[in-house]
Amino acid sequence: MIMIFITNMRSMNWNMIIRKFVSIALATVLITGLVSACGNTASPSAAPESADKVVNIYSARHYDVDAKLYTQFTQETGIKVNVVEGKAEELIEKIKREGKSTPADLFITVDGGVLNNAKQSGILQPVESSVIEGQVPAALRDTDNQWIGLSTRARVIVFSKDRVKPEQLSTYEDLASDKWKGKVLVRSSTSMYNQSLLASFIALDGEEKAELWAQGIAANLARDPEGGDRDQAKAVVAGIGDVAIMNTYYVGQLFNSDDSEEVKVAEQIGVFFPNQETTGTHRNISGAGLIKHSRNKENAVKLIEFLTGEKAQALFASENFEYPVNEKAEWPELLKSWGAFKAQEVDFAEFGDYNKTAVQIMNKVGWK
Ligand code: FE
Q: How far, in Å, from the CA of 199 to the mean position of ligand 1?
């Protein structure tokens, strides 16, 4: 091109020369651009991203045991674990927004309803692993394996050992009767733990009975709901109420607290598993979903296999006092002392299906 330009130069005026220069410059820019664009699209396929020793998690769990488990996984496999923490709903929105370019490989959260929301929103894909199927009972996995349970949690009745005998306790329904007027403690209805508890009653007994129960609880409260689950146990020991509805793993955390006052609280309360003769104790689940556009799918599946393995499962129980999903995992002494219990048989997806109704009921009956 330059040769042709030089040979023609004598026959051109300055105006033409400038125009020619501009067209050559533009052509050069265009060619360079095309070459580099081809280079850009070519390089990632030359080095497949699945070869990266990394797995990226978007997590709504906020427990120390999780970080410990990820470190162990990296030590065993050399696969680095990156975690973005956030609220479950926000993380689901983020993954939807990021679409195919999301860096997320796994979505980890608590609550069966939320896990089902993630599935319904189309951000997950089925996990294919016979290892996982062998480690996690079908009832603790999504029907299409789009999410896999990592741990379960029981929402029980905790009582003052001084003022209440376990024989006085029986069911969640009983807590709504007149005999517990002014004695029941439970956190706010804004807590997903309570929303899913009520959703489970809607699934088991229907909307009408569930509403009567919520009405009875709201009428029997010892005080307006405040604080988290641990604060309900503290209020029982402080004599504000006699019984509290809370998750068992918080009792474990109180027992193992660095704060001696919290240990004293744990020593003064008893744990009661309600509805053993009827529908069973309310159980919720925490789990991991495989992201549809995961770029490190193999590593992500490996991490779920690790987290549902016996050793990791025992750590969920011994460090965070959650119940293992793997039946072979060892229980710590505290869980053993509470004993095995009959759990509700409810499809976890129903917690999501009935969430709106549960919230409406709680608002209606004045459960703040
Ligand atoms: Fe919690």
A: 18
